[in-house]
Structure formats: C-alpha cells, structure tokens
Amino acid sequence: MKNILKKITNKSIIITIIGLGYVGLPLTYRFIKKKIKTYGIDTDEKKVNYLINGKNYIKSIKINYFKKNKNRVFSSYNIVSKSDIIIICLPTPLKRNKPDLSYIKKCMKGILPYLKEGQMLILESTVYPGATNEILISKLKQRFVIGKNFFIGYSPERENPGDKYFSYQKTPKVVSGHTKNCSLIIEKFYKIISKKVYVSTSIAVAETSKLLENLYRAVNIGLINEFKIICKKLDIDVFDVIDAASTKNFGFHKFTPGPGWGGHCIPIDPFYLSWISRKKGYDPKLISVSGKINTLISKRIVDEIILFIKNKYRNKKKIRFLIIGLSYKKNVDDDRESPSYAFFKILNNKKIFFDYYDPYFPQTILGRVNKIKKKSIKFNSKNISKYDASIIITDHDIIDYKKLYKSSKLIFDTRGVMKKLQKNDKKGKIIFV
Amino acid sequence: MKNILKKITNKSIIITIIGLGYVGLPLTYRFIKKKIKTYGIDTDEKKVNYLINGKNYIKSIKINYFKKNKNRVFSSYNIVSKSDIIIICLPTPLKRNKPDLSYIKKCMKGILPYLKEGQMLILESTVYPGATNEILISKLKQRFVIGKNFFIGYSPERENPGDKYFSYQKTPKVVSGHTKNCSLIIEKFYKIISKKVYVSTSIAVAETSKLLENLYRAVNIGLINEFKIICKKLDIDVFDVIDAASTKNFGFHKFTPGPGWGGHCIPIDPFYLSWISRKKGYDPKLISVSGKINTLISKRIVDEIILFIKNKYRNKKKIRFLIIGLSYKKNVDDDRESPSYAFFKILNNKKIFFDYYDPYFPQTILGRVNKIKKKSIKFNSKNISKYDASIIITDHDIIDYKKLYKSSKLIFDTRGVMKKLQKNDKKGKIIFV
C-alpha cells in the first residue's frame, strides 16, 4: 500500500484505462495532461488504429499522445501486468430490458491473468448496486486479500458530452473503496485530476448515487414531456410556461421537452435500478411511467405531424420529411440511443419517405439501435425545399435556422429552437410538436 | 388607465387585499412597508379581531398596522369601493379530489356590488388554467370593457413559508394581464414590492406556470420517497446516497425523503392540473403515480415501525408513540395538509396510543384534515421516556435532538435529522424509516 501511495505522490504511477469510448477517452486525456504514464486498451481494433494514427473518433477529444507513443495503446490485455492502477470504462447497456454487464465480465476474464499484488482495480461504468462486489470483489478475493495486497474501488463517471466547460476541477469526483485502505488510495489517486474528491461511505452507495443522478433526469424529462402533452390539450404554449416558471430562483429546475430521450445514461440507468429493485421485491412505479412517456412521446409527435399534414393537404398521398439532427443532444457527435433513430423507425414502419441532415454525421451509424443506412443531405435551399416538411429533432447550434425556415415548406419543431423566429412567422410555417 | 398608473407612480394608490392568510398577510406586510395605503378583508372575524388587537396568528409575521389603523381591516366587502386595486388571496383547496374554487366564487359575489370603473382586480390564488377567465373575466366583461375602464390580472404567489430570506426583491414576481393595458398596470404595480417583475404572455400561461412549479416539487418528492423505498430493499443508506449525488454541481437538484407531503400547494396543485387535463382528454400519469407514492409512504412507514417494535418486543401488547412535530415542514407554525395528521389518523385507526410534541402548536388544530384533539406534551426527559418510541415527523431546528435521543427508548426518524447523532448511537436506538 505504501508503495502505491508513494507512486501517486511522485506521479510515477502507471495506469491503464480499459474502454476508450465516451468515458475512457476523456479520462485518458485528463491523466495524460497531468503527465501520468497512461496505457489504453480497447478491444475494438479500429479505435486503436485511429489513436495510433492520431485520428479522433470523438470530435471534442483530440489526442496525439498515442500517435507519439504507439506502444501504449492495445487491443489486448497484456499491458495490465505493467500497470499500478487499472480503470474499467466499459459500456453497460440493456439487453432485453435487463442489465447487460457482459463487457465488464469479459474484461475481467481477460485481465485476470495479468493482475498481481499491489495493484488497484477501479470500475467507472454505471452498474446496479452490488455489481462491483459481484463481478470484481468476489472474484478477486479468492486470489488476494483486498485492502492488504490488492485494492478495489468504484468511481462513477460524470462526463457531460457536449459541455466544453465540464471538468473534474469544478465537478467533484465521487469515489469509494472496498476497505479503508482502498478508499485512501482511490481518494489520493483521483485528486490528481480532480480538485474535489468525495469519498462515499461504501461502494454500493457510490454505485447508487450515479443511478439517482440519472434517475432524477429521466423522471424530470418524463415530467416535462408529459407536461407538454397537457399544455397541448389546454392550447397553452409550453415554452412560455417554462420560461415563466424558470424565473423562480429556488425550488425549481428547468427541463425542456423534446422528441424523446437519448444517450447512454438517461434511457438506460433507471432500468438498472428498477431491475434490481424488482429482484428485491419492490416494483418502482415512477421509473416505468416516465420511461413509457419518454418512449411514447416520439410516436405521439409523429402522429401529430401526420395529422397536421393530412389536414393541410387533403389529397396528399406521398409525404416526404427532412429530419434535422441525428445526435441524441445538441452539439455532440454522439448518436447513442438517439431519438432520431426512433423517428426513423416509426416513419419507416409507416412507409413514409424521409432524409436527414446532421453536420456531425455524414452518414448514419449502423448498430444495435439503428438499421437504416442513409447519408446526410447537403444543407442548401434547393435540397431543403424538396421536402414537405422539416422535423427538428436535434437543435445543434451550428445549424442555420433562418435558412432552414426560409427553405422549408413547414417546420415541425420538437425542441423549441424556432421560438425566436416565431414572431416573424407570418405564414405560420413553424409548428411546435 | 392614466389615472391608475399615476397613482402607482406617486404611491397614492389604495389597495385591498382579500384573504389574510399565509399569502395575503405577508403580501399586506410587503405593501405596508412600502407605505401603500392597504385595506384588509377576511370573512373570518377571529382573524380580523386578532389584527385589530395587534396579535399575530402567523408567527413569522408581526403586523401592528391594523392595530394602529383599526378601520382598515374588515370582515365585509364594502371597502372595496374605496380601493384602486383589489387582490384576491383566497385558498383553493380540493373537494372530493376536484378543484374547489368556492372561496373565490363567493368573494366575487360579495365584491361585485362594490366594483367600479377604473379599478384593477388581481387574483393571486393558485388555480387551473382558464379559471381567472371563467370566474373573473367572463363575469366582469358584462359590466365593463376590460382593458379600457376596468383591469384584470393574475399573479401567482410564490411565498415560501419558513424561509426568512424569501423576498420578492430576490425572487421575481410573475404577472399577467387580460389585455396589454392590464399587463402594463400590473407590471408597474408589482414593481412597488418586487425588483424583478416578469410579464408572462397570457393569464393562462401565468396560471399554468405556478402549477408547473409545484408539479415539479410534487413529482420529485414522490421520486425521492420511492427512491427511499428502493434503497431500503437494497439495504443502502438513502441519505448517504443523496449526499453523494448532491455533490454533482449541474443537472441535479437535491430532494430529501420524508413522512409524506404537506402544505397548501404541493399535495393540491398537481391535481388542479390533472383535473383540467382529464377534462380535455388526457389523463396525466406522473401526477397520479407520485401522488399515490406520497400518500402511501405514511402508511408504509407506520407499518415498518410497528413491525420493528413487534420484532423487538415479542410480547408487547400496548404500544405508545410520541409524534415529534405537527407542522407540514420545519420551522413553520403551519399545519395545512400536514403528514403528521396522516400519522394521527393511521395510528388512531389501528387503535395505537400516541401523543405529540410541537413547540409551534400547544394543541392540535381541528379542521377539514384533522379531527383529533390533543395537547402537546411538555418536552422533558420524564415525559419523553414514557413512550415506547418517538417518531420524528417534522424536523424543527428548535428541538433539542440530543435530549430527545437520551430520553427516548427508540427513535424512528423520517427526516434524517438524527444522521449526525448516528455515529455515537451505540445502543442502536435510531432507526431511519
């Protein structure tokens, strides 16, 4: 233990980050900036090659480190044996509505031969309470005395994609250790990149705190989406109401309605909690209700749009839509669980033609969520005017909304980004859905 | 119109506030402080007598004004004819789960003979969207040309009982008018007491904004109460989890679990919205689910306490509880819709004996919610030790929790206020429920 603490103090600690995605890559960057010798592992060889060639696959993170140090990024696990601290940043998705921890489990199998006395293993992935114990601790305590000759910790990631100003200098890092010694080491370790490190009372508390953070967001997105439905029924402008309520400087937190929900956290994490809760005998109500609202809202919006078009053009047989935005939120090149794909699917099922435009995505990404291959159109008046309507799903700042307004026959706005152009909309082309 | 604007400018405006309760009385106080000639009306003669005698019935508001000006507070409506601006601050409760606007309707009948050209009538009560139109505007437009020779506005109250630092100098006042002229007058008028006046786009928007503010609180209280249930099932300390999550400095807003919900706003306002929404064809899901959680949580807690006691004392036949706190939230002498009364009712139904202690309430208040007559016990060791357990419902700061700990056989804490004494609780007397 003294050894590892000393290495942290004099910054000679060697770390390995496993999983170089939206969490692992920024984390790598933070440690590199602090001149910590950092190895990277990703089983996706494409990512490894990108990094070796100095290319970036996440727009906001430009890393030259692995181009300069080509022997520090791998698709295999051997290097783990040469590391003092190993951090796992792997995805934890859902599979048939159940937590899918297979990435972490596979990784554990892979690194097991390379783990040795004196190391610390840290998990940053979002998991259900007890998972670190099940998958990491219970395995390793057969070989090591945790807290004596091996150390295990959990620290939930708090990355905020698209937020340029996010930093662990401003945002505290929650950490936890399996024993007191583990807590001591992990606290000291994360102080390298974070001004405020908060040591929670147990690993389970830290695991659950991350779920609470995202549960809060998921339910409040559900709330404001349902509130939008109510306002529509009452014929009241939901954005005006939110503006008025947001002037309250205590006890209120502004959320805005949208086309659904997206990203790797909000539509997934709550179900980790409800899954384990149900296993223990309590079926959470708010999680499932807000989940249903956030999923159904996309279908609701499409129905509303089609009804509008049908009422406007009585004899119209074929409708052609232009979807604006593929990212799950604005200003990021991140399409994980994007509601845009939900719209793709719904329109496809209804056999309605559509194209899309997103400056962050020249083409769609095929994967678990999306099976539809398309290329982004070029953003010019001629192209835009070909469609019966544009549907704004993602409100990227970079988009020229005035041009979009001028060239579109109709604009259905799910984000309220056209509010500022509404005043001059004498033709009534803007419809908030 | 010029006349009323001029009077506001030179502060010669005469106002009448109808309903001198938790909203009307502080509002009166704010205008009196600005040297505005203010009349008060409350049909409850007891209140009028209190005020004339300089006694205060809301602890935090001491008003000598009506003692000095005995002819400015009435239980009848005549004085309305001598006022420029009339503000209605009457309660809007639920009756059989439906909005009960009878107080406002009765008031409208009462003041109608005394309304005249050039006046402005403002509603501050929380109502469903459209209610100001239904009850005020539609009646008065038969007699006046609203916006020309009579003015109508709506401004939702934002009082925060128990918050010494609340002020409309810090918190913006949302206002709205039926016409542009109405908006102009109401904006100028509230600037007398508020630094920031926000003019919303319509009365319906202002009405709805207030409901959104409290809907947000109601759903998040439901969320954190349900989250507590989940944490219990997982055997994780919910307060530790909340502490860890609260270190997130963006995208998170801390709520703490409790014994249920209370006050005149949170358990009521959401049902105003769901009632009107249902009338328009949409049955809101999140409101009803969070409502159910917040109502059921009290019963759940009592069941948990009784189970604990029964497991501890196998042969115990009669249990005696001491309820700590009668107010719906800490540091206020306000028992409206207090969860303490829910506990009273549940224990009474189960024929379990209990007493209570609350420094703010020497005796219980009989009314719509509570039918049980009791006197607060004296807070001393001998008294406290008579009971099998204390149950903390309201966490007033003024209570001596160390004494409570020492003298109680067991303490069931619904608020987490005993967290700081937990470390030294070697006897395991503190149980968080």
Structure commentary:
2 copies of one chain form a homodimer. With 433 residues, the first copy, chain A, is an alpha/beta fold. Chain A folds into 2 domains: 2-201, NAD(P)-binding Rossmann-like Domain (Rossmann fold); 220-432, Rossmann fold. Helices cover 38% and strands 13% of the residues of chain A. Chain A has 15 helices and 15 strands. In chain A, strands 3-2-1-4-7-8-9-10 form an 8-stranded mixed β-sheet, sandwiched between helices. A 5-stranded parallel β-sheet of chain A has the order 12-11-13-14-15, covered by helices on one side. In chain A, a hairpin with a 2-residue loop joins strand 5 and strand 6 (98-99). The longest helix of chain A is centred in the middle third of the chain and has 32 residues, at 203-234. Chain A is elongated, with a radius of gyration of 24 Å. At the A-B interface, helix 8, helix 9, helix 10 and helix 11 of A face helix 8, helix 9, helix 10 and helix 11 of B.
User: How many DSSP helices of chain A?
Assistant: 15
What Rg of chain A is obtained from the alpha carbons, in whole angstroms? 24 Å
Secondary structural class of chain A: alpha/beta
Let me know the CATH homologous superfamily of the largest domain in chain A.
NAD(P)-binding Rossmann-like Domain
Strand order of the largest sheet of chain A: 3-2-1-4-7-8-9-10
Instruction: Please mark out the parts of chain A with pLDDT under 50 across 5 or more consecutive residues, or reply none.
Output: none
Strand proportion of chain A: 5-15%
Largest interface: A-B, 65 and 65 residues
Helix content of chain A: 25-40%
Straight-line N-to-C gap of chain A: 58 Å
CATH architecture assignment name of the largest domain in chain A = 3-Layer(aba) Sandwich
